[in-house]
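Re: How this chain folds, sequence and tokenised backbone to follow

Filed under: protein folding, tokenised backbone structure, sequence and structure records.

Contents: The amino acid chain and a row of whole-number tokens, matched residue for residue.

Body of memo: The sequence and its backbone structure tokens, given next.
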Amino acid sequence: MQIILVQDVENLGHKDEIISVKDGYARNYLIPKKMAVIATESAKKVLAENMKQRAHKEAKLKEDAQSLAARMGGLKLTIGVKASSTGKIFGSVTPLMIAEAINKNGFEIERRQVVVADDHIKEVGNYTIKVKLHKDVFVDLPMEVIPE
């Protein structure tokens, strides 16, 4: 029996895939638990239309992320922190602090979008920060951590 998965099913497939399974598995488990629907001709047409619309929306999101990446390209961050005379920071520079510094420059970034090579920055110096704007679009930003 051919079915269309409504959600990801472990060891079977991902959402919106058309797969073949045994009749009993589909009728007694997948369909009653709303994990799949029977792949009729009308269901296949609906799936195709949904995939087309989703691809269009995804392309728009990626295009917006690329334009934001182009605008962020020249940005250089400077974060002032309390530090000892040897350059050790009291605490650390977190993704939240970096996101706030980016937002002060007029961009809307969430802390989850900031990717730091190490979990936290614990010393004064120059670093490169990655900002994930889309699953395929990243921006590398230079950042300088200075003592206050």
